[in-house]
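so the lab meeting is tmrw and i was supposed to have these ready like two days ago... anyway. pasting both below. for each one the top line is the aa sequence and the line under it is the structure tokens. i havent really looked at them closely yet so no promises
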Amino acid sequence: MSNAQLRPADVTRAKPIPVDAQSPKDALGAATADPILEAFAPSSEQPASEHPPLLTPAELAAYLSMSPKALERWRSTGDGPRYIKLSKSTVRYAREDVDEFVRANRKVSTYQ
């Protein structure tokens, strides 16, 4: 059934999306954790290091559901997240730069 055929009765039958019980909550009880940025959050099983982990282009492309070639185009045009050039052929992305890029590109309408 397409969205155009969705009836109000169908909406009431939809299952609610569960809120993770482990998520931090604000004063009103709403979850404040950002699921997009949680993917890069350090695991409690691993000790926090002084430096953020560096992601390869392939890792970042998989996280953003895009091709590594698209990231390469972004690097040449300056459209993507900041990157680190370790050698002539070695590129890495700092997690904090990726988080900043994702936050900066959030939109609420197509007119932004």
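ok protien two:
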Amino acid sequence: MAEPLFLLADSAILGHLGVAQLAGAGLGMTVVHTVVGLMVFLAYATTPAVARRLGAGDVPGALSAGRDGVWLALLLGVVLALTGIVAAQPLTGWLGASGQVQAYAVSYVHGSLPGLPAMLMVLAATGVLRGLLDTRTPLLVAGVGFGLNIALNLVLVYGVGLGVVGSALGTSTAQGLMVAAYLVVLVPRLRRAGVRLAPSVMGVLGTARVGSWLMLRTLTLRAAIVATVTVATRAGAVTLAAHQLVFTMFSTLAFTLDALAIAAQALIGNELGAGDRAAVRALTRTLTGWGVGFGAVAGAALAAVAVVVAPLFTPDPAVQAAFTAGMWVLALAQPLCGYVFVLDGVLIGAGDARYLALAGVVTLLPYLPALAAVASLGTPDGAASVVPLWLAFGLVLMGARALTLGLRARTDAWLR
């Protein structure tokens, strides 16, 4: 929960700068998180790969797979950071931003680029430790890192007066410190196991090949998110600002539920490495039950506090009203989200990346027309636009994902 709690705090910090700043930073965050989100395979491919080798008793092999994932993250991070220097302006314009909103969005993206390689290395290093069934170290690094991130952002945004750029620079600095902490933990483990620090070219290429399917799966999710942001952007600044706050809350709950999905990745991979299918089935039943149950509890809590929390994020009455309405829709979708996130983790842990990628493409078939229908309604900027937008996202998109994942889980094709 450390990262989404930081995002909530960061949204509150930026929300008090003004509607244009919040909307622009929200759009900039979408661009950066889209890039980082597409690279999440660095964690999702590394965790089960390390876990399967650990389950089979091959500790050096597990650490070698993790090492290659971290090197791949560094290489990709440098390339993407250099690309972002020239791509920020046209990307934000393509998403529908203009004027002050676009200027703030570009500023946020540029301020985030120095930390992009570190962000990707954090993903890979976290995946290594999860695969080794070590979740305490990532908890410590994330908690301290994001706590420091909030402090840095407060100082840079308000103390130094850097505004939106200060938020991005604070995040870049914190991510660099986090990856340094992970290397301090991982390098001695590699040396003790007799694993060299230099990468294996074949290992890096192998991680990239396995991750390509997971990247396609993530691409479909990010395409849905970016399409949603595009509709919100064209509806107006109030809708975009409120959507950013609702999506931040969605991300908070998604990351919280993802704790179960990450456990599924590591435990399912470990048991499949050991060849215990009965344990895999039992874990799947337990985890999906927890996912739906937690989603129901989280949804009820979200609906209860929706009106109370809105003023914490923005002083603007119109954004508050739209944010509250979107929160109620999000609350309704939480049990479905819990089911989806957990089964996603189960199938990632089983290495069923090809099916996940193709299923992701299928889920866009009902969602994009639903989103187009929302855009064609021509509702006024504000709550009237946010509600149908989140009905489409929370029920149509998540419903399609639940159907494709649930049908797969009922078969034996993924048990390998």
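from a quick look at the 2nd one: The mean pLDDT is 87. Residues 12 and 313 are 4 Å apart (CA to CA). will dig more after coffe
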